[in-house]
Automatic annotation (TrEMBL):
Gene3D superfamilies: Creatinase/methionine aminopeptidase superfamily (3.90.230.10), Creatinase/prolidase N-terminal domain (3.40.350.10)
Alphabetized InterPro entries for the sequence: Creatin/AminoP/Spt16_N, Creatinase/aminopeptidase-like, Pept_M24, Pept_M24_MAP, Peptidase_M24B
Leader peptide range in chain numbering: none
Name recorded for this polypeptide: Aminopeptidase P family protein
Peptidase M24 domain: residues covered: 181-381
Keywords: Aminopeptidase, Hydrolase, Protease
Pfam family, one: Peptidase_M24
Top-rank taxon: Bacteria
Organism of provenance: Paraburkholderia youngii
Residue ranges that the Swiss-Prot or TrEMBL entry lists as coiled coil: none
Amino acid sequence: MGKSMSFVDTLEQHTLSLAFSCRQKLFSAAPGLDVIVTTDPVHVGYLTGYRSILQDAGPYAQAAIATRDRVALITGASDAAAALEELEDPSCIWRYGIFYVGATARMAGYADMPAPGDNFFDTIVSALRSFEIRGGRVGLDTRDEKLARSIWQQFPHVAFQNGAPSFKRARATKLPGELALLRHASHITDKALEFIVPMIRAGVTELDISSEINGAIVQGGGIPRFVVVTSGERSSRVDAYARAKRLENGDLVRMDIGCTVQGYCSDMARTLTVGDPSDQQAERYAALLAGEQAQIAALRPGALASDIYKIAIDTVRHGALPDYQRSHCGHGIGLHSHEFPPIAPNSNVLLEPGMVFCVETPYYELGWGGMMVEDTAIITDDGHELLTHSTRELCQDRVK
């Protein structure tokens, strides 16, 4: 009997079909566009299905050009082999610069791709010319104003417009394939946090816990993106790296964790105490948890994002934190860990099926500590689907 296929293997087989569906959705959200051009690495992945590891090394020039039925990836020559593994069709990979990768006679390779360009800009122009866009309507999604002006000058008979709003509209709700990736990213993060609960004891270091979380995420098929493990007074330090600090009895341990699976993000948080919590810790956490749970209960189509925020704030203030303040109590999640729309006081957005949210009620007090609880949910036709289920108990000794 052959080896069974993992969930991640199955998802990888559907990368191209998901990218095709994303392009269809984008152009449905932007009927006034014939072509879209983007240099945003997240949107390059959205349109092509390919996400370069080189983006993790710092700013890296890439672009994608797409219609409903065609896509071109513009990338560095060294990246073209990895792109070909994902995209399979060499004719859609436009490379710039010089890099040498050979191929046997039976393998598609660099020789089957369009001729390389000297630089990023010239290659975008060459690829865009192949779309025969004269007289067309082209959305341009880039923050590089100099690049945008240079492209306009090369195509004086093209009606360019800002392409960013089209991505915002299309990405506000998720396709079934995107939801599958978000479920898996949330699942492995949830399991990683569940796995380390027995480690929360005196003498263990923040780095020990962080290392185990990272390993569990990788084993589950994810890429760790932020792993915040802070303890004691350090738990008040927002988004800080773990240190070699040893946990002590009475410490708060605040963990805010996220990973990606094929570009799609998870983001969740838990707080535990080392030993029994103090009365103040327990009372404050109870207020925060009540606020977060009230938000979850209110997640449904037609709810107003600003109302969800108000529910969270009012509920927490009825507990042990009467002066509780937050600029937001949650956010959309997808290809970014923080996406539109926010759960914020002026967020006049009605929730829709297919939107995905992280809801949270953090509290930070320098000199005392910090605590939070954060969960992820999909808005469904008649309510919500909660994706994160690991314990929300403050004291790990009570976790069964």
